[in-house]
Amino acid sequence: MLDMVGSDGKPLHGVIDALYNKQGVYILYRGDVAYYIGLTEKSLYKRICVHNKPGDDYYSCWDCFSVIVVSAGESIKKVEDILIASIPTTANRAEPRGRIPLPEEVVKFLKKDQIIDTTLDA
User: Which residue segment(s) compose the domain that 32 sits in?
Assistant: First the structure.
């Protein structure tokens, strides 16, 4: 079992209840640095507990975590792909699958404010 406690050392029972039957993406951290990004379509709580057991590839490699609860029907894999692509320092073996197209209004905004290099458009 994973002991979830706040910075004050008190148990976070509400967090366990909230994550027990939720699917989503999680990030394991070593200190302030993201170490591993994963997903589960079942219980976030149970999946994180698996990473906290001897024999798991990431056991003892992390000391805290964060989660993103993804509603049923939403593309959980896309959320994971975006995080893996945006945090290249993680120990993930998986590569993001394909490119995720930006909405046209975002592309226009980025080009207008010269946030992206439009000379690369072909």
Answer: 13-97
